[in-house]
Amino acid sequence: MTEDSQELISGGHLVAKALKAEGVERIYTLCGGHIIDIYDGCVDEGIEVVDVRHEQVAAHAADGYARITGKPGCAVVTAGPGTTDAVTGVANAFRAESPMLLIGGQGAHSQHKMGSLQDLPHVEMMAPISKFAATVPDTARVADMVSMAFRECYHGAPGPSFLEIPRDVLDAKVPVAKARVPEAGQYRASTRTAGDPAAVERLADLLVHSEKPAILLGSQVWTTRATDDAIELVRTLDVPAYMNGAGRGTLPPGDPHHFQLSRRYAFSNADLIVIVGTPFDFRMGYGKRLAPDATVVQIDLDYRTVGKNRDIDLGIVGDAGMVLKAVTEAASGRLNGGAVRRKAWLEELRAAEQTAIEKRLPGLKSDASPIHPYRLVSEINEFLTEDSIYIGDGGDIVTFSGQVVQPKSPGHWMDPGPLGTLGVGVPFVLAAKQARPDKEVVALFGDGAFSLTGWDFETLVRYNLPFVGIVGNNSSMNQIRYGQRAKYGDARERIGNTLGNVHYDKFAQMLGGYGEEVRDPADIAPALQQARESGLPSLINVWVDPDAYAPGTMNQTMYK
C-alpha cells in the first residue's frame, strides 16, 4: 500500500485524540486562525468547545475545571496576544498547584524568524511559570507531546504545562501509522506515594505523645482527594484541625475538631504542629508564626517545598491521603488515652475561637447602612447549603469572607490561591457550573475584581449557567486604599484606587441575567433567595461600607 493511499490525520485532530485519551471533556478557548484545526478535531472527538471573551478567562476556567474535577483542564488560545493574555491564568495555576494544559498557536515553521503574524517567543515566556513548556516540532509528534505535557503536570506537586504548535505543524496531515497516539491509561504512572515508612512511624509516635497538637489541612488535601483520610486521622487521634485554601470544607462546620479563628493562638501554643500541603509562604508568615519550641512536621507532594523558609523537625514527601492514612494506622492501638489528655487543649482553643467570634459579632449583626462587610459575609454563610460551591474573588471583601464563610462540604471552596489573582471569579463559575451542573455556585466579588473579567458574565448567560453572584461594592480597590492611607496619610489614600459607583445589578440585567440592588442589610437574605430562584446568572449589587477594613488587610506587613 502506498503512502498516498494510507489514512491521513491532521495535527489538530491529533490534539483532539490526545485530549480525549486524557479524559478532557471540554476546552476553553477564544478563536484565532492559528488554532481552528483543533476545533475541527474536537468536534469529531466529542469534546465541547467553550468560547469565552478573553483568553485570561479561558486559562482561569481550565484551572478551575481541574480543581473541581481532579482531571486536568485545557485551554486553547491563538498565538501572540492570545497566548500573552493567558499568561496570568497559567501563572495562577502554577502557584496554586493546579494541573492544566495551555495550547498556544504559533506562526509556521517555514516562516520562523521572518516576522509572521502574532509571532512571539511563547515557550521562553511560559517556561518560568509552568512545569513544562515546548514547541511541537513535527505533526507526527503532536499527540505524543500532548501526553508528555500532561505527564509533566503531575510531576511532584501538580501544575500547568504549555505547548505551542506552529500553524504548518497543526494543519499538516500525516499517515496515521506514523503518528504516535498514546492510549488512554497507558502513558501515565500512579503518582501516589505514602512517604518514608520510618518518618510515618515517627509522626505517629509524635501525635500519640503530644499534649497540644494542631494540624493545618491545606489545598493538597483536596488535590489528592484525601478528605476521608484526613477526617479519620483528626477524629481518631483527637487533633484540632485548621483548613486553608481548597482544604476548607474537609471537616463540616460544627465538627468538634473544626477550628477557624483561633489558628494564630493554636500555632503560638501548640507543642506539635503538622502542616499538610501548604508551603511556608506569606500566608504562613514564612513559618515565623509557629511557636519556636513546637515540634514542626511538614507533609507535601513537592520535596522542594519541605523545609523551605524555616527549619522543620520532620518532613515527609508524599500523597497527603496515603501519608495521613498510614500515620493513623501506625498510631492505632497505642493512643494512650489521648482523647482524655487533650480535652483541656480543645476547650482552650474553643474558648479562643469564641472570643474571636464575639469580637466580630457587632459587625456580623450590624444593621448599619452602608452595609458592614461582616454582615454581608455572615448572610452569605447562612445562605450556603451542603451543595453550594463558594467562590471568592476580591481583596478586602474576600478577606472578610475568609473569616466567616464555612463551606459545608469538601471541594466546595475556590479562591485564587497564593498568587492573589483578581478576576478568577467568573471563569471559576463557568468551570464549576459546567463540571458540576448539579451543584449551586455562589460567588462573592469585590467590585474591582469583577471588573477584570466581568464581561464573561455574558458567556454564563449564553451557556445558561445559573449562579448566585454578589458584588461587595465600595467603589474602591479597598485593600490597596487602606495601605495607602496607612503609609501616606488621608490626603493620599485615594490615588489610583477609586472606582465609579457602578450598578452591577443593571449590568447583569443588560446581559440577560438577574440583577438586584441592596442597600439595607435586611434585604440581603431575600435578594439572595430571589437570585437562587431566578434560575439565571445573577448579580446582587450590595453597597458596603468603604471605611470598614478586614483585620487581615490591616495586618498585612507591606503596609507597616
Task: Kindly describe this structure.
- The protein is α/β, with parallel strands linked by helices.
- It is 40% helix and 16% strand.
- The protein is built from 24 helices and 19 strands.
- α7 (142-153) links the parallel β6 (132-135) and β7 (160-166).
- α3 (55-69) packs across α18.
- It is globular and about 75 Å long.
- The model has no long low-confidence stretch (mean pLDDT 92).
Shape: globular
What portion of residues belong to β-strands?
15-25%
Total of helices: 24
Biggest beta sheet summary: 6 strands, parallel
Rounded average pLDDT = 92
What radius of gyration results from the CA coordinates? 25 Å
What are the low-pLDDT stretches, counting only 5+ consecutive residues below 50?
none
- Structure class: alpha/beta
What's a concise summary of this model?
The protein is of the alpha/beta class and 560 residues long.
SSE layout:
Layout: E1 8-10, H1 11-22, E2 26-29, H2 36-45, E3 48-51, H3 55-69, E4 73-77, H4 81-85, H5 87-96, E5 100-106, H6 122-126, E6 132-135, H7 142-153, E7 160-166, H8 167-171, E8 173-175, H9 197-209, E9 213-217, H10 219-223, H11 227-237, E10 241-243, H12 263-269, E11 272-276, E12 295-300, E13 314-317, H13 320-331, H14 338-341, H15 343-364, H16 373-383, E14 388-393, H17 396-404, E15 413-414, H18 425-435, E16 440-446, H19 447-453, H20 457-462, E17 468-473, H21 478-488, H22 504-510, E18 514-518, H23 524-534, E19 538-543, H24 551-554
Parallel strand pairs: 2-3, 2-4, 4-5, 5-7, 6-7, 9-10, 9-11, 11-12, 12-13, 14-15, 14-16, 16-17, 17-19, 18-19
Antiparallel strand pairs: 1-8
